[in-house]
Amino acid sequence: MSPLADPVAMAVALDPAIITRQGKYYVEVETLSELTRGQTVVDELGVLKQTPNMTVICSIDAPRWKEHLYRCLG
Hints:
The chain is an alpha+beta fold. The protein is 30% helix and 30% strand.
């Protein structure tokens, strides 16, 4: 996961064309385990055989994202 997840999410919201790869996956937040409570689990391989419930952005156009970021900070 990107250490700049929030700025990337904002850039995607403002300019969806920045997305280069996305997929639909079953996603769940672990709530029962003491060891992994709060962890987001993305079933990329379909192991759980659940209906996808989330669109996950897998990659973005990094140079375009940096351009957005620098423009906002400048």
